[in-house]
Amino acid sequence: MRSFGAIARKTRSAALQAHLDANARERQHDVIQTAITYRGDPNPQFSAKGEALFAWRSVWTYSTAELVKVLAGERPQPSVEEFMAELPAFEWPNA
Length: 95
Description:
Layout: H1 4-25, H2 32-35, H3 44-56, H4 59-71, H5 80-86
Helix pairs in contact: 1-4
């Protein structure tokens, strides 16, 4: 049987990755990984979008830190919906 930590990590990871990819798809990218490859692109609009998504994907750092708190009993386990609502909002650049 898998531990709570393994289940929590898998559920959190799947939800977070889907959230990141959904934002990338708002601007016709298939997933965030391909969108961030436009960082430094000669097209300033493409480059700005790639940079913004690259910086925003650091929500993984927040997510990992919060999971550690749950596993240590420092905070209750939020639902996926509650956790997603805690994440910083993404704003597309105006470039």
